[in-house]
Amino acid sequence: xxxxxxxxxxxxxxxxxxxxxxxxxxxxxxxxxxxxxxxxxxxxxxxxxxxxxxxxxxxxxxxxxxxxxxxxxxxxxxxxxxxxxxxxxxxxxxxxxxxxxxxxxxxxxxxxxxxxxxxxxxxxxxxxxxxxxxxxxxxxxxxxxxxxxxxxxxxxxxxxxxxxxxxxxxxxxxxxxxxxxxxxxxxxxxxxx
Length: 193
Prior knowledge:
The protein is 84% helix and 0% strand. It has helices at residues 2-13, 17-33, 40-53, 57-73, 77-93, 97-113, 117-134, 137-153, 157-173, 177-192. The termini are far apart. It is elongated.
């Protein structure tokens, strides 16, 4: 199943979601048939992501429900958190922020409890996106700033750039052009280094 898994990942990253879905389905069949339950929740998450990339959200959510079941059965709280995050991301994509927010909050809580603070910081950014789309710019800004602190703590330059860009867009939505310019300058400075 490893070759199919790698083929799925390659095609998913190149935008070939249809090929990725088929490759991940083969990976899943092989792992389930062999009784090799390890990493099944990860394969299901990748399959769900590929389905979502081609706009098939319902099958994606169904795969994630299965992934959550496998994660809980294997007592993998990290996998459970990542599945919750993936479900939250899909609900954001379809505009169901009321479902997305509690999923990201639960994922973040689990990751914090496990000491996976960098990953928990990513969920803070995802919460910012959900609140921004709901029009709650105050909460969005709070979550973005928390995510930015996490990215700085772990020297994650790419995540810092992403969050600074989101903060700049938020400032523009609020009509604060001066703040947007300053935040974008910070992002550009990071990018130049």
